[in-house]
Write a structure and sequence with these properties.
flat; Nucleotidyltransferase, domain 5; 12 helices; 3 domains; about 25% strand; Actin, Chain A, domain 4; five-stranded mixed beta sheet
Length: about 350
């Protein structure tokens, strides 16, 4: 019976991320998880590719085609491209073209301004949504990882995304204190690119930097700190492509700057948490979500710096999407946690 209802109700939840966009459909779960990239023609702004296909083209496009990442630091940097991307995801998922337009819930960073909220809502409505609700990503992540957000006790969530790190202390279904740093996975990639350029005079692209971060990146000394990786790039002196070998240790040193910004933001949040809720956090610990939570040793580093237990959520990449999806089924909760 529920499946039949799910067939008619086409409500969807979107985690509009800087790095990836995930779509959750009522009754079906996460049906789409693709990179937030749009490739358009430079002259008439016609879309060429969106998502996975577009990401393959990053850094490889000819002069008449431009690859855009419409979300920068967790907010809309290119309104037209965001509209194209949202339309693509909504149409891809909402193929049935039923008479009822979908109700859409979108996860957004906690530091979003009123103007940016308006832009997200307008882009979604222009893409065919009937009603649009916005929910703060740390709140969505807390719901997604199963924290008891409605209880009168403090829960702390750290959502390390592609563009921003959102940290929030939640109690009684509301955010008591939140702080966001515009540092995330993208900043880590940029730091790696800058380090390799400075140390080896070698230019590498975004995709290579991301690969290095995934394979060698760590925030805390691990057992296999002798791990190495061969990278290819363009020598800035001779202009000829070259191959270099890099070590895990130097990548950890390079990543220390963005990692320390995240650490400082966590400390500021803890300093501003009311004492009763701080006591709950001592018992319950800090929960890490978002792609950045997968950086090896991140939990150990935060735990050592704060003397608190730190847990990485199960499947941290989909925590926000799952949370936004759970809210779809619970209208009273949605009304309570949505940004008004």
């Amino acid at each position: 019976m529920f499946n039949i209802l799910g067939w008619f109700s086409n409500d969807m939840a979107i985690d509009l991320g800087t790095a990836n966009t995930l779509v959750f459909v009522k009754g079906q779960g996460i049906v789409c998880n693709e990179p937030s990239v749009v490739v358009m023609k430079r002259d008439n702004k016609k879309p060429v590719a969106v998502g996975i296909e577009a990401k393959r083209m990053l850094g490889k496009t000819p002069a008449n085609i431009i690859a855009i990442r419409p979300m920068k630091d967790g907010v809309i940097a290119d309104f037209d491209a965001t509209g194209v991307m949202l339309r693509y995801f909504i149409e891809k998922v909402h193929r049935r073209r039923s008479l009822v337009s979908p109700r859409v819930v979108i996860g957004v960073p906690s530091s979003i301004t009123q103007v940016e909220q308006r832009a997200v809502k307008d882009a979604a409505i222009a893409s065919g949504a009937r009603e649009v609700y916005l929910i703060e990503e740390p709140m969505a992540a807390a719901i997604g990882v199963g924290l008891p957000i409605s209880e009168p006790s403090g829960s702390m969530i750290v959502d390390i995304g592609g563009g921003t790190t959102d940290i929030a202390v939640i109690s009684l279904g509301g955010v008591v204190y939140s702080k966001a740093a515009r540092v995330g996975g993208d900043k880590m990639d940029e730091t790696i690119m800058a380090h390799i350029k400075r140390k080896y005079n070698l230019m590498i692209g975004e995709r290579t930097a991301e690969q290095i971060k995934i394979e060698l990146g760590s925030a805390f000394p691990t057992d296999n700190s002798q791990k190495t990786m061969d990278i290819k790039g363009r020598d800035l002196v001779s202009g000829i492509p070259k191959t270099f070998t890099i070590h895990e240790e130097e990548i950890r040193e390079a990543l220390s700057e963005p990692v320390n910004i995240i650490l400082d933001t966590i400390k500021v949040t803890l300093e501003n948490t009311p004492p009763e809720l701080a006591a709950d956090i001592v018992d319950r610990g800090i929960v890490l979500a978002g792609g950045g939570a997968l950086l090896r040793g991140m939990d150990s580093l935060i735990s050592e710096a704060t003397d608190l237990p730190v847990v990485v959520a199960e499947d941290p990449l989909t925590a926000v999407a799952r949370g936004v999806g759970m809210v779809l089924d619970d209208l009273p909760l949605l009304k309570r946690v949505a940004i008004h």
